[in-house]
Amino acid sequence: MMYRLARAVMLGVVMPCLLLNGCTTSHEVAVKPVEIKPIHITIDVNVKVDRALDDFFGDIDAAEDQLETEKGE
Fold this sequence. Notes:
Blueprint: H1 2-23, H2 46-72
């Protein structure tokens, strides 16, 4: 009888622990360090020079157009 009681208590304690242990989950997430690298950007300088030349020659073209309109009148 004592053997049966000890067995029943053991099953009553151990079995729920085993069943609950099987239901638990644990996850490990490894976070690697973030590496920040500089970004190198190449800008075409020709655009800047082209705009400066347009501004320079635009003044000359405007003056030329003004002279042509004055001559045409």
